[in-house]
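REVIEWER CHECKLIST
Item 1: Sequence provided? yes
Item 2: Single chain? yes
Item 3: Sequence as submitted:
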Amino acid sequence: MKLGAKVFGVLAVTLILFLSIGVLLPGTWEAEANALLAAPPAIVFPYLDRPDQWIRWNAMPESASISGGPDAGAGAEIHWDDPRYGNGSYRILKSNPPTLLEYEVEIEGGSLTIRGSLSLERQGDGSQVRWVERGDFGWNPLMGYAARGMGDSQRDAMLANLDSLKVLIGTTEPGF
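Item 4: Structure as written out by the authors:
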């Protein structure tokens, strides 16, 4: 057998094995971040419940634009089409002021779907925020590998966003 045929055979078997393992890996992930903010839930919640405020503290594509739906609460949404982030949408699914917000993010027509919730609990003069996200890359043998590290990287991004929210709350006056 020629060397080229052996090398090709080994590469083919390796690729098949890699894809087979990828099919077995879950394409889902979960991340959680917590923070204590120096404002009560009634002050914090409008920053979560309004897309025009959400984009001030949450890393979003610069091309994000508010479109359709109400200004705040269930049904409020943002859509974007960005060369760096692709196209997608953020939509508030449930809003129970001032303690709970649930949302969904869809990227590239649903090839990645993220469902998240932010819950606030009064703690002294401040708010304890618990942010949970669950994502699903769908059925893609390559994305099972990506999902393995996504929870940690997403948690780091969520913590950075909560730090931005802390700064924003400390430097602006409420009243939207």
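Item 5: Key structural point noted by reviewer: The first helix runs from residue 3 to 24.
Item 6: Recommendation: ____
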